[in-house]
Design goal:
349 residues; alpha/beta; Rossmann fold; seven-stranded mixed beta sheet; 11 strands; 17% strand
Length: 349
Amino acid sequence: MKRIGVLTGGGDAPGLNAVIRGVTVRGVQLGYRVLGFRLGWKGMLEKDYEELDLDKVADIHRQGGTILGSSRTNVAKVPNGFDIVKRNLEELDIYALIAVGGDDTLGVAQQLHEAGGRVVGVPKTIDNDVNATDYTFGYDTAINRVMEALDRLHTTAKAHQRVIVVEIMGRDAGWMALEGGMAGGAHVVLIPEVPFEIDEVCEVVSRRYGPGKPNYAIIAVAEGAKNPEVDEKLKEFGAPVDDFGHVLRTKMKVSLAQALAEIIEKRTGKETRHVVLGHLQRGGNPSAFDRVFATRLGLKAVEMVEAGQFGMMAALRGTEIVAVPLREALKESKTVPQHRYEEAGVFFG
């Protein structure tokens, strides 16, 4: 009986368990034994796995997280890493491996394919920035978390006539801030793709205050949004910088939202608070859309193994799940185009 391996790498996303369930159920139906590797590529390197069966995956599609665990282990940075993975696959008699993850996990999968491994990818990220697929699972759940948070913040901001700056995940792509902000009625949305001016943000805030005005404001800002004044404030907070004085955003222990909130309060005179949604955005159970979407991706991944479509990734195109080359997904990140930001801008203020 042939064996299929499956692993989940990188940051967790609601829907991972639905993929695992889809892979297991379809795999068993087609006569495969399914091995789940713990903690992503770490488990693959260490031969740390468990056999999955129908009982183990029953109803797990309703649960967030991943029953296999995850890590950010990079095989390429381990001495002889790909040789170890290939040897382990051979020793465990695994016919093909299904790797579920974002750019980093899929990048390792592509390198394994180039090294002769039989591998299929499944795209996963709440940021929705993987190319060659219309959406990634976990994104729908995450932007609903953002929307729900903004809905709640409207009431308290209005009650106290405050400005609230809400920091949303999205280091390089602003999809979550854009669509979560639009759905949650943010009065300004700031994303990495479009550098912003503090004066313009403050102008929007000021216009909302006065007799007969709403007298509060919600600002949705992606963690990767760019402004030189904010960077200077972050340096004051002790954010690390490189040799050229640029803030190293991936190593910050301070909040961009806090820096922006302090600047807005000083410039407008309006009481301003900040909220960092953080891991609340990726936690919890998946939405109906993500449960179904991720399940379909898991089913398709096994069908791709059966068809010998290696070096490929299951992707959503329109309403269909199709196979696309991994290299196409890895060419560049899918970022917010200008016209989408302009759509959101119609509602600023």
